[in-house]
Structures are given as C-alpha cells and as structure tokens.
Amino acid sequence: MPGTVRKHLAPGTKVSVVQKHHQRSGELTHGIIDRILTNSPTHPHGIKVKLTSGVVGRVKELHD
Q: Assuming Cys at both sites, which of 27, 44, 49, 55 could form a disulfide with 22, CB separation 3.0 to 4.6 Å?
C-alpha cells in the first residue's frame, strides 16, 4: 500500500520513508511513525511524517 493517503497512516505504524536529500537516489529509511506532518488527506509524493528516530521524510512503503 503506498503512503499517499493520510488515513492509512497512524503513529506507531512501521514505514519506509525517503528523506529530502535522498530523493534523487531513492534511498529509503525504515522506522516507526511518531507524528504525521502533512495535513491534506492525500499527497502525490507521499505523506510527510516524523519517525521516532527524528528523521523526517515522505512515506513510500507501509510494513506490517
């Protein structure tokens, strides 16, 4: 499931995000959502979140 829909995400969800400086390479960082930063219900490049590690990025993948 892609991370472009806000209602599919919640704090505590395991995700992979791409950070701003890794957008060209597509390098993903794995973590758990601490806060959802995007207010709109959808975003074409992924919902922006802050992970518990402090990393901020756009969600590319959700994990179970």
A: 27
For residues 3 and 21, the model is more confident at 21
CA 42 to chain centroid: 12
* 22 domain-assigned: yes
What sign results for the dihedral spanned by CA atoms 33, 57, 17, 45? positive
pTM of the model: 0.92
In the predicted structure, residue 1 carries a pLDDT above the cut 80: no
- Residues 24 and 40: beta-carbon distance below 8 Å: no
CA distances 39 to 17, 42, 48, 61, Å, are: 17, 9, 9, 19
Number of domains in the chain: 1
At residue 14, what is the residue type? K
